[in-house]
């Protein structure tokens, strides 16, 4: 990848594409007090009403620029702790206590963002401009169907969020890096891969091997970018079929990523209860150990490691994804340029 300084497309991708949903934090991060989160190239303030309803604004008071997160939540408004200026969830200033009736009152002066809670996480729609209604948050069936049970695994890793996607788009690393894992010890050390297009993205999969190891990865765009893979479970893994992982990754800064993995399994009744108990008491630690192997490798890679690669057939999924992302970034830049021309 080119450096940000020389490539406007790279600058767009570094902070995350606009007009997409992103998971930004686990639900428990936001309790009674406003919370400041740096994500997607800016700071957001997230807070709840007493009913639990979520709101999000840019963490910037339009008066003097103080962080709104240092203030007090007042239902659907937040009062800046610096001078008491109150900003509603839609970005409109409703009160300026120090100068009632001034021109700031009634002005829409702060960026507002739509947020939604699902599957143990808070999702934010990273709109390029304020929108009245975002597209629906469309999650994969493993996170929405009653036939599946899931656990959210959240971590913050050093390194760009695209390195995480590269890692998941590389099934072959499971055969080597994770070969001691109870669920990834089988299968061939060599493989030929193919890309299979879908209506919402593509699948990168091994030819001639299925349900043996980490044999395929799916990337999808449903106004939320997410990835899916399945790993066969041995009998010691408890009842149910393959173990699914749904992943989605959000830039915190250029070199820090918010990493979301949902671990899912299709089962019901007593089997669901048995698996959830087994997961918490035995399997969760094993799964974190596997993720830790990924984290260690990614965090010690140089920031420009992907500029000095010698890729081969196993990496065609990464190449396919990177090319697609650059095309999306180019479309965003063209749209922004057209908007500026209209304004001019």
From TrEMBL:
Spell out the coiled coil positions from the record. none
Keyword list, A-Z: 2Fe-2S, Iron, Iron-sulfur, Metal-binding, Methyltransferase, Oxidoreductase, Transferase
Q: Which GO terms describe its molecular function?
A: 2 iron, 2 sulfur cluster binding; metal ion binding; methyltransferase activity; vanillate monooxygenase activity
Q: Which InterPro entries match?
A: Cholesterol_7-desaturase (IPR050584), Rieske_2Fe-2S (IPR017941), Rieske_2Fe-2S_sf (IPR036922), VanA_C_cat (IPR044043)
Which top EC class is given? oxidoreductase
What EC number(s) is this enzyme filed under? Answer: 1.14.13.82
Which GO BP terms apply?
A: methylation
Which Pfam families does the record match to this protein?
Rieske (PF00355), VanA_C (PF19112)
- Limits of the Rieske domain: 21-124
Task: State the protein's name.
Answer: Vanillate O-demethylase oxygenase subunit
The scientific name of the source species is Collimonas arenae
Show the taxonomic lineage: Bacteria, Pseudomonadati, Pseudomonadota, Betaproteobacteria, Burkholderiales
